[in-house]
Amino acid sequence: MWEYTEKVKEHFINPRNVGEVENPDGVGEVGSLSCGDALKLTIKVGDDRRITEAKFQTFGCASAIASSSALTEMVIGKTVEEAQQITNDHIAEFLGGLPKEKMHCSVMGQEALEKAIACYLGEPDKKPEGNIVCECFGVTDVQIEKALGENSLKTVEEITNYIKAGGGCGKCHEKIEEIIATVTGTPIEKKPKVIRLTNIEKIKLITETLEREIKPALKKDGGDIKLIDVDGDRVLVKLIGTCATCAMSQVTLKDYVETKLQELVATSLVVEEVS
């Protein structure tokens, strides 16, 4: 579906430092299983404040596993102060780059490292500042503003790629656009939304989107998808080929297929797999 570097593939197939450090000095947990990505990072710190051991446990896609594996290699041997300077861009660069749709995996690594170091320093686990904008992934306006400032992002899609905000139901897109306009000082041109679709029109758009946008990407990895039925806002599909046996099939359905259909057809659509 996405083009991965050889280093990403290597860290996915042969991840380093998998597991949990015994009696860790710092623990950082981010994400959640309900969101599709979760990472637990544990570190051991020596008397000279150098990180002597780092291990991870990740639930997520290839990029999430590779980013977590790379992160452990990057921090081992560094002082706490040096590790604090590591950003998500450093993680992506270490891997030779990540697809723009998967940059949020490197952000997850940076956030886990920040939490692990804060734990080691005895700092309280801080709740995200600001007001929740994206309820699906619990992302605040302050986090969106930070992502915009640090990464020169300009669109809702880019925000979703970095911190997943807007990647669920889509109800927060308008609010995210307002934040983008405020931070960048440039009004966002809103795309016209399809409204009041008849069931026939909806099926036609869904079919066209599957054929034009989704199937070609799945076929690159030996998979495919078949539309079974449309029941209101429920899109019933069947995965075929490698997609049918992939352990991450549900992530593909929600993070890719459902997101694309919500973006290009209707934000209310929910994709479900049938046997």
Which helices and strands appear, and what pairs or packs with what?
Layout: H1 6-13, E1 26-32, E2 37-45, E3 51-59, H2 62-75, H3 80-83, H4 88-94, H5 103-120, E4 132-134, E5 139-140, H6 141-151, H7 156-163, H8 173-184, H9 199-220, E6 223-231, E7 234-241, H10 242-245, H11 249-264, E8 270-273
Parallel strand pairs: 7-8
Antiparallel strand pairs: 1-2, 2-3, 4-5, 6-7
Helix pairs in contact: 1-2, 2-5, 4-5, 5-7, 6-8, 9-11
Keywords:
275 residues, alpha+beta, Sufe protein. Chain: A, Arc Repressor Mutant, subunit A, GMP Synthetase, Chain A, domain 3, three-stranded antiparallel β-sheet, 11 helices, 8 strands
Biggest β-sheet: strands ordered side by side in the sheet: 1-2-3
**How is the CATH topology of the largest domain named?**
Sufe protein. Chain: A
Q: Enumerate how many helices there are, as a single number.
A: 11
The averaged pLDDT comes out at: 87
Q: Rough shape?
A: globular
Low-confidence stretches: none
Q: How far is the N terminus from the C terminus?
A: 22 Å
Give the second-level CATH assignment, the architecture of the largest domain: Alpha-Beta Complex
CATH class of the largest domain: Alpha Beta
Tally of strands? 8
> Could you say how many structural domains there are in total?
3
| Strand and helix order | HEEEHHHHEEHHHHEEHHE
Structural class: alpha+beta
| Share in β-strands | 15-25%
- Profile the largest sheet: 3 strands, antiparallel
Helix content: 40-55%
Radius of gyration: 20 Å
